[in-house]
Amino acid sequence: MPNDARFSLEGKRVWVAGHRGMVGSAIVRRLAGENCEVILAGREVVDLKRQDQVDAWMAKEKPDAIFLAAAKVGGILANDTFPADFLYDNLVIETNIIDAAYRNGVAKLMFLGSSCIYPKLAPQPITEDSLLTGPLEPTNEWYAIAKIAGIKLAQAYRKQHGADFISAMPTNLYGQGDNFDLNSSHVLPALMRKAHEAKQAGASSITIWGTGAPRREFLNADDCADACVHLMKTYSDYEHVNVGSGEDITILELARLVCDVVGFQGDILTDPSKPDGTPRKLMSADKLRAMGWAPRIPLREGVAKTYAWFLGQGN
Ligand code: GFB
């Protein structure tokens, strides 16, 4: 049953769990425009993998609302290499926070997942009701299972306890605060670093993983944060909501765009010994659009802003 959908952030104590990550920090920036009190806790204050610490912190701080953006995240290789970490860390973080939120009377919680929850070969664009209709992409099934469990946990607390817990499923995100480590990052920051370093070194080419043929949808983290705040204030129901741009491009096209923005004019080579992952992952944006939200940051503009931020970090 839907609760009353409208939720005011005015004067509320709002905990952004995972505020040092790319998405969490974008939500904190976005909340500066709301008249609420943002409360934060770094790892040195509360270890989210420790149930006793999460319980104690929540009982003391008593947030009114929570954005659950804390997660172990990474690109295709990190997911494939550290399955135990991606499954265990994410399960335990979300379980600790969601249960403590219920027991401490948190009025509203948003759980953030990922577009990899959907079947590898889901019909495109992927609608919310595709969840659990087919096998997952093997490179990230561990992360996907944890995120599906998080959606189900939020639904279960809504069903059993009437808790106003909702879930948002962002597409592949990028932006300031992203991870640019070549082994653990997602594709967009990896390509940016490769193009930047090749330009600096006067190299003749960069190499991208896989065939370059997979298609991905990209959304700037600041757009994602804006969508999350919109949903927090206006949505209250059982089903999760896709958060995307509604457009996808091939990895090779993305590489060309990033090289163009960075100003690297060399060749783009492919390395088919590295995994492609799921062939296409474009989510339907219809549900969120019908709720009156649309992204504002076009991909090229977002990549240029991210590159400016990257350069500002001393790179
Ligand atoms: O962003 P990415 O690591 O994640 O890779 P996924 C997307 C595509 O880009 C894959 C290719 O086809 C990669 O092979 N690619 C090309 C590269 N060059 C590179 C490179 O230098 N680095 C990286 N990382 N990729 C993740 C999931 O899947 O998406 C997570 O593993 C999560 O669980 C996240 O859901 C949003 O889109 O394939």
- DSSP strand content: 15-25%
Distance separating the two termini: 50 Å
- The general outline is globular
Low-confidence stretches: none
* Counted beta strands: 12
Report the average pLDDT across residues: 97
Q: Identify the bound ligands.
A: guanosine-5'-diphosphate-beta-L-fucopyranose
Structural class assignment = alpha/beta
Helicity level, as a percent range?
40-55%
Oligomer: single chain
Please state the CA-atom Rg, rounded to the nearest Å: 19 Å
> What series of H and E elements makes up the topology?
EHEHEHHEHEEHEEHEEHEEHH
| Adjacency order of strands in the biggest sheet | 2-1-3-4-5-9
Largest sheet: 6 strands, parallel
How would you characterize this protein structure?
- The structure is a single chain.
- The chain is an alpha/beta fold.
- The chain is built from ten helices and twelve strands.
- Strand 1, helix 1 and strand 2 form a beta-alpha-beta unit.
- The model has no long low-confidence stretch (mean pLDDT 97).
- The structure holds guanosine-5'-diphosphate-beta-L-fucopyranose (GFB).
- Guanosine-5'-diphosphate-beta-L-fucopyranose binds next to helix 3, helix 6 and strand 7.
In short:
This protein is an alpha/beta fold and 315 residues long.
Notable characteristics:
single chain; 315 residues; alpha/beta; six-stranded parallel β-sheet; four-stranded mixed β-sheet; 10 helices; 12 strands; 41% helix; globular; binds guanosine-5'-diphosphate-beta-L-fucopyranose
